[in-house]
């Protein structure tokens, strides 16, 4: 994978338009996309859709729906296979653009697009299951034979966040399409460029209107949620954002799937294997994408007898971290995506220091004058903090991790579950029975054993949260069903009717 990764940067600035009803169009206004690592540098411009543009996208998707939904799942799969062909040809350039607009290192941006392709193909592979229903035979007092089939919902809106926008899109968009829906994709306003490029290349190979892309200011795009012609919204983002989406969707009773923030607990039992392999996994689970992944480990609970060992292992890795520009060779940790997030993470680190917690910071901020003022932040470990501190109770979404000792298994489970969130969790132990016992008590939607994070997510399995981490599931046949409803057709059975 690394051998195919180009080190060339794209020609700047990049420009993207809207894609509606099978045609690219420009808008009267544009979004300026800044580089979070280089203050004053503009990565490119994305079209800023007007409310009228949004209405056109909804109308185009609505017009395309009857013909697309009338196809069998196998026929839709053939269209989708053809649409994804050649998607990797521009992956190096897409990755460079995403790295510039997002801030993360180039390799992560490259994998972002790769995961989209993998998820697309996995969804297409489900075609034989999509239309499969069931038959309910007559039963005592029920003199009918009932066929239960699945049907698509209509026009769906898919809204993705800045951190892994292309990969996250792959968890829902292809499932919506293979289910028979038409779609409108709304990329994030802070990182719209690479996502728009990828989606448009796919949309161009599908029937007009089946897949549309609109970028712009959130205030001008509310119809993507409130329009009575939108059947469902799939949103990935913050808890606050999810609550706003749900409130807006309630006005038209539009269905929602919400994949929201997390405060994932990694629970390391007394017999946890703490060697280089496992420490590398834990480190990546915490600090990939500068800590800006919803399913990253956000709290590490360690049996007290292993605390020093785990802290030393993470510290040794942080001492080797290279903070820098995402496109620069050798950089292992880029800037945060926004200055507001940098300020928040810096604030909760200072709060931990003021409380008397053992805060250990690592790395050196970039010295290149071009990067001065960028959203860079030294990563930190907070050892044995007061559990009421925000570094423990809130989603940091940045390069800081609390490492908290426990004495008993029950204590660890209670602490892990004592949170508003319920996205993911992990158990680290040499005992599979202990892993199942503890993992089965974690109140979250996905649990890893001896690993944690996006790099080990089974892309075939249903994924989603509990509590305020959202509801609904993406991926797998469950992800397809989330974009379908059932239709039951009952025929009176003469024999059963006569017998009754």
Output the structural class. alpha/beta
Shape call: globular
Major sheet characteristics: 7 strands, mixed
Rg from alpha-carbon coordinates: 24 Å
Helix content: 25-40%
Strand content: 15-25%
Termini separation comes to: 66 Å
Please, what is the average pLDDT?
96
Low-confidence stretches: none
Strand order of the largest sheet: 15-16-17-14-13-18-19
Number of helices: 18
| Total strand segments | 21
Written description of the protein model:
By secondary structure, the chain is of the alpha/beta class. 36% of the residues lie in helices and 21% in strands. It has 18 helices and 21 strands. It has helices at residues 51-70, 73-84, 91-102, 106-124, 127-130, 165-169, 173-178, 193-203, 223-226, 239-250, 276-287, 307-318, 339-354, 390-393, 409-417, 432-439, 476-481, 494-499, and strands at 14-16, 18-20, 23-25, 29-34, 42-48, 134-136, 144-152, 155-159, 182-186, 211-213, 230-236, 255-259, 264-268, 297-303, 358-361, 380-383, 400-406, 424-428, 446-449, 470-471, 484-492. The strands form five sheets. It has a seven-stranded mixed β-sheet with strand order 15-16-17-14-13-18-19, with helices on both faces. Strands 10-9-8-11-12-20 form a six-stranded mixed β-sheet, with helices on both faces. A three-stranded mixed β-sheet has the order 1-5-4, covered by helices on one side. Helix 3 crosses helix 4 (106-124) and helix 3 (91-102) packs antiparallel against helix 8. The longest helix has 20 residues, at 51-70. The protein is globular. The chain starts with 13 loop residues before the first strand and ends with a helix. The mean pLDDT is 96.
